[in-house]
Amino acid sequence: MKAALRPDSLAFAREFFSCREPDVLAVLRQSSVGIAGAGGLGSNVAVSLARAGVGRLVIADFDKVEPSNLNRQQYTIDQVGERKVEALRDNLLTINPYSLYEVHDVRVTRRNAAKIFARVDVLVEAFDRAEAKEMLIESCLTRFPGRPIVAASGLAGYGGNRKLRTRRLGNLYICGDEESQCPKGVSPMAPRVALVAAMQANLVVEILIKMRGRHVTGKRNSLE
Fold first, then answer.
1. Alpha helices, DSSP H only, in the chain?
2. Over the stretch 94-112, which tens digit does the pLDDT of each residue have?
3. pLDDT higher than 90, residue 41
4. What is the rounded distance in angstroms from the CA atom of residue 72 to the CA atom of residue 68?
5. How far apart (Å, rounded) are the C-alpha atoms in residues 182 and 195?
6. C-alpha–C-alpha distance, residues 182 and 158, integer Å
7. Which CATH superfamily is domain 21-216 in?
8. DSSP 8-state code for residue 158
9. Rounded to whole angstroms, how far apart are CA atoms 106 and 2?
10. In sequence order, what are the residues at sequence separation of 6 or more whose Cβ sits closer than 8 angstroms to the Cβ of residue 114?
11. Regarding beta strands 172-176 and 56-60, do their DSSP bridges make them parallel or antiparallel, or are they unpaired?
């Protein structure tokens, strides 16, 4: 790394954001995204959105990093045993130190979901269990009926790229193949999990641009 380009310098910050389209970056820097779950989907979505330049990520998960997580989640061997949200925040800060990462080491429930994700523009559902997915979607659509939720369904195994799609139901978007049950002997693997997570993250960016783009057209990166 060049001595003059330290991460805490304005010159480094300008170069860091130099390959991003200014009007798009202006929208993303002003946006906030909630991510419910920090596992295979959530950790991959968070990394993609941090690299894209989203200004604030709110991430909630109650679990810790296990050795079995390393086949598809954005953690490293030396983070095994750490709380997922704390480990993920550390990783995100090494990728993009210019965004805010608000983490909640709690189980998301009907009681606390609305409070945790009260100030986000878009919510990403990234849970493993069907009942948790249903709980989050129902509670948040009831409490915030106008806010988009980007969920996932069907991502286990490998191959099947042509089966992956996005379906919209009002303000609910579902990414994946929507097969509710994994076939026997088929488990989540990094390539397909990452594909669906990338679909979710890509859709979040598109939604944010459509929601807020008209307000910042022509504005440039505030770091310039």
1. 10-16, 22-29, 40-52, 84-95, 113-116, 130-143, 190-216
2. 999 999 999 999 999 999 9
3. yes
4. 9
5. 17
6. 11
7. NAD(P)-binding Rossmann-like Domain (3.40.50.720)
8. S
9. 40
10. 139, 140, 143, 144
11. unpaired
